[in-house]
Amino acid sequence: MTNKSNESSTVDVVIVGAGAAGCLYAATLAQKGKKVLVLEAGNSWTLGDLVSSQIWARRLKWQGASVEAAGKNPFSHNHGTGSGFGGAALHHFGTWPRLRPDDFRTRSKYGQGLDWPIGYDELRPYYDAIQKEVGISGDAQKEIWRPPGTPYPMPPLKVFAQAKVLARGFEKLGLHTAPLPLIVNSRPYKGRPSCQYDGWCEAGCPIGALANPLVTYFQQAQDAGAEFRAHCNVTRVLTDAKTGNATGVEYFVGEERKEQHAKVVILAASIVQNPRIMLNSASDKHPQGLSNSNGLVGAYITMDALALVYGLFPEDTENHFGVNAGQLLHRGDFVGADRPYGPYQWQIAPSMKPNDLLGIATTRPDLFGQELHEFMRRATKHLASMAGFAGGVAQRDNRVELAQDKDAQGMRKARLFHSFSPNTLALWEHLVAQGRDVMKAAGAMKSDIWSGPPGGSHLIGGTIMGKSSADSVTNSYGRTHQVKNVVLAGSGLFPAGSGTSPTYTLHAVALRSAKHMLARWNDYSI
Q1: How many CB atoms are located within 10 Å of the residue 161 CB?
Q2: Tens digit of each residue's pLDDT (9 = 90 or more) over 395-448
Q3: For the chain, how are helix, strand and coil distributed in percent, rounded to 5?
Q4: Among 66, 347, 350, 494, which has the highest number of CB atoms less than 10 A from its own CB?
């Protein structure tokens, strides 16, 4: 926690959420002299709170009010969200590829999903600035799918036996691989040590080799004078009865209700919580919720369909070494003669532990007792795995809405409705078949190859950006069309994804937007 300020005073900016986007905004604005307050619902984590344990890793996930899951492919959002300083980026795996030019125009070029209101060229300088600041390990030349940009500041991480085994399978099938670009240090960078390859990224990184917010923008924001308060559960944006502009936020500390007034409000909570707060902020000026006269707040939730494929091999795969994200990457284009439409990627050879999220045991939930013991004896030395991400297609019916049940503060809980499009499920089936072919080509016996059911990952949308209020919630800078001093941040702004992690792009979008706000401060603030 930083210095205490008078809670009743008006700040320049109040930011809801101390995750990746919130911390970046806080640092960028505070460094230019703005009085910034960040309200976070979770704990005030420090690096010293991070413990390399599967049980402790769960403490970093969402700890707030439960979220109802609905739809044909319901999704438990806890997996990809966070709670506390650093947010989801505190425990994320650090996979940081860039979106490609076609990712921004899937509707106009392929007739699928939605277009972005901006293109790659608008984000390229911010991608470059972010990677220099936080550090990325990789090999830009080997990434034949990578769009133009400056090379990575660090060489790629080490490659262990598991990745080498699977790489030969991709090679035999004519599928190119490259080192996975990661915000994990392959050598010391800006005072932070290099990775020790013990595979505990999901539990955070107590040595700071993974560039989570605690060692990047959070620290910069504190150094610049931004204040962070933990255990502050924001329930609504307060608005002026005459103008409809935001005047601050309402929040609770336990059962105590408080208000924080601000010139600008930035909602940088999760994909689920941003729409929830906006819908709960209904007023006479905003009867359907904040900036929701078009009914699009909460709409167009999109996620990738996750294909998990496994194989057992004769040699020792050293699957406990490395990082959780994987060691190698293969990215597929949008179209192909022998497959359904959609961008996709393979993250190859993640480090694994005995159980839990990336657990060896949990790859075979059908086994019990002695059969499970026998499988574990073999698999701990000989298992190889990879994760395929089939890019989702934006659908308006996939949405966050308010449920009837309420939380302890009387705020209605969120309901997350999600169904994969038929095209996305077809692409997922293609990836499963392709993954099995890779395992076989790499040397696994057919009887030693298996896969899991479709899962969900890389959640985006819900408060999408666009060119006008007719088709979106915000403009390309995250500024709501209907309330000039409310800005949204995070991957909820994305109209479309790319079958890949959104976190790098989330940073680039936030940096572009924060600089735009500073350049036009008098227009934003009230």
Answers
A1: 17
A2: 999 999 999 999 999 999 999 999 999 999 999 999 999 999 999 999 999 999
A3: 30, 25, 50
A4: 494
Q: Which amino acid is at 295?
A: G
Q: Residue 421 CB: number of other CB atoms within 10 A?
A: 19
Q: What is the CATH number of domain 11-524?
A: 3.50.50.60
Distance CA 420, CA 457 (A): 12
Rounded to two decimals, the pTM is 0.96
CA distance 257 to 267: 19
The ranges assigned to domains in the chain are 11-524
Burial class (CB in 10 A: 0-12, 13-18, 19+), 56: middle
**Element at 348 (helix H, strand E):** strand 344-348
Catalogue the long-range contacts made by 474-480 (C-beta closer than 8 Å, 24 or more residues apart): 474/291, 475/117, 476/116, 476/117, 476/118, 476/122, 477/512, 477/513, 477/516, 477/517, 478/509, 478/510, 478/513, 479/513, 479/524, 480/290, 480/291
Task: Look up residue 198 and give its DSSP letter.
Answer: B
Nearest C-alpha neighbor of 199 from the set 54, 22, 305, 364: 54
CA separation for the pair 514, 134 (Å, rounded): 17
Taking the CA atoms of 14, 19, 22 and 24 in sequence, report the sign of the dihedral they define: positive
Give the residue among 269, 204, 297 at the shortest CA–CA distance from 64: 269
